[in-house]
Each structure stands twice: as structure tokens, then as C-alpha cells.
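[audit] Reproducing an earlier prediction to check determinism. Same input, same settings, fresh worker. If the C-alpha cells differ from the archived copy the diff job will pick it up downstream; this log only records the rerun itself.
[audit] input (259 residues):
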Amino acid sequence: MTVVWAHLGLSKELKHLHPTVHAYIIDNLFSRHQNLYADISWDVLSKQLLMNFNGANVSLLHHDVHEDLNGEIKESVVDTEEVEEMREELEETWDIHEDMMESRGSVSGPTHAMAIYLELFHAHADRFLTGTDFVSSLGPPDEFPGLVNGKGCMKDKKNHARQVTDTGSINMFLNDEAFQKIVLGGNYFKINRLEDTFAPPPVCGDSLLPMEALIGIGVGAGVLLIIIIVVLVVLCCCRKKDKVSFVRVDGPGSATTRV
């Protein structure tokens, strides 16, 4: 039986669980249960844990000040300086996409927790699924008041698009292998036993080409280089021949040729 653990096993009540402790738990469960997967489709994961950076100091995750470390992982150590460096690297990627993300979503950038969980996503790239648990719908205000009184259900197309943007915001940090398996469907095909029929497309800019294609590219480049060299040699020879002789006319009826 295949088990997909919803929302990384978190809830709004458990969102303050130390990410190192949580990653440790998931890592151990994955090692013990080969049929266990986890989904990261909940927008709350992004908006309240992974992509809601507000300038918080990384020292809040230090093992000396967080009760989860003593309670769950004895004598554990969290290198907060390394975590800060990892988050700053993610920030560089975020800066590239920030304008687009802020115009379509409601997240504010990668947190220190995102840096810690990213290592888990890469270590177990074949065990995570993505998507959204947000169902788009619209009802009359009287029957479905929604989250804003008097305006009906908020689950319309616009909000659905925002939810997908928020949920997918973490995808920009995944390496090629994790992106292909988690985002492009590799793991979906696997758990549905379709990997022999379907495969995720290659990642843009990916160098994972078949050996035959690499050989073909090499041979083609070599032939093109030879052609260019031959053309250059021919042009040089022709220019030398043009400079061998010339004809000068001194006046009517006479001509002199010099070599």
C-alpha cells in the first residue's frame, strides 16, 4: 500500500515545530517505510512556514533556545550560521522572481525553515508530491458567506490562481532532479505505476541528454569546424592570386603588363 502523508504531517498547530526536528522525523520515517510519501500542497506551508520571511533572526532556531531540540533529538546541534548562509543563497534566487511572485501571490521570501527543508527535499527527491488542496468554487452570499461576510465564497478563479502561486513558490529553489520528480510529475507516475509508460519532460537547460545525442552534437560541431577551416584556406589562396599581376595603360594604343 502506498501512503501519502498530507501537508508534510503538519497543521496550523504544529507549524512551530523546529524544522530540524521535523526533517529528522521525516528522514527516519522515509528510511523505515519505502512506500511512504509526503505532499507539500498546502498553501499554509508556504505562507506560514517556508515563504513568509519577515526578517526574523536565525538565532531563534538555535539548539539552546528551542525546546524541541532537547525533547526530541538529544545533544543535537543547529549550525545557525550555516542556516543563515543557506537562506541568503535562496534569497538571491528569490530576488530574480520577487516582482512576479508578489504580483500574483502573497508570499514574502524564503525563511530559514525553507533552507532546512530544502535539504530534505533534495535528499528524498523521489518521495515528495506537489499540487494544491484548494478547490475553486463560487456560491451566492446568502448560502455561502465565505471568509468575507456578505461577499460570497472566496474560492473563485482569482484566488485559486493565487493559492497555486503561493504553493508553487518553493519550486524555484529545487535542483533539476527534484524539480523533475516533484514538480514535473515523475513521482506521480511512480506511485501510480506509470513510470514505464510516461516520463517527466527534461528541465529547461538540463544537460541530461542521451549519449547518442551528445555524440551527434560533437560530430556535427567537428564537421562544421573543418568546413570553416577549408573555406578560410580557400579565401586566403584566392586573395594571394589576385595580387600577382596588374595592367597599366599609359596612353592611347599602348599597354604595359608587370608581374
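[audit] rerun output stored. Observation attached for the diff report: Residues 45 and 58 are 19 Å apart (CA to CA).
[audit] end
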